[in-house]
Amino acid sequence: MVTLDLEVANNESLKQWNENLMNIRDTVLPESLGKVKSQKEGIKIFKEEIANLRLSMKQSADEIKITVDTVLDDNTTNLDIMEASILGEMAEQEKESEDYILYLEKKIVDYSIDMSTWKPSELVMTFSKEIENDILITFPELTEPRVPTFTKGIITKEKVGRLFGFIKPGTDPRFPKYNDETGPDGTLIVLCPQPVIMEPTGFVTKVDGYHTVTTEEDLLYTD
Fold it and tell me: What is the pTM of this model?
């Protein structure tokens, strides 16, 4: 009778052993391989998205640079227009000043006569009207050019950062969550990163099969 019980126990143990082996081979291993594959794909996608983030930041920086260049071009154009207008006015005033010098030089020539050939009374009689009617033109009015001013804007890292955008930690996980699963026969399967070993439970009154335990002897599998 004892021999029969032992044979039954051995058969049940071998059956349980085979079931565990099949469960690992047909379920746990494929699922684990699938998760490893998914993890590798997740890493690939993660790297691609990081590259896209770098590209987006570069594009944002380029857009800011383009905008700054546009503002610079607009202000430079306005400054060129102001410069041309002011230089035009200054050129006109310079021409008026040069004309005035010519006018004075002509006056000097007009008044430069040989007085030795004239008697004073004759000189006064001849040129009195010209002297009385000759009004000396004053020097043309000159205006000082007003140089345009540049009011520098307040540029701070915070203001540029708001235009540029911010990078912050993500909220959506990219890797599968490793949860406990249930085998096809209803047994509990725990995917544990620690190495596992198979140890027999012993045969006392009822055959319990095999338990999966960690190297710290923590029970992971039971009927």
Answer: 0.57
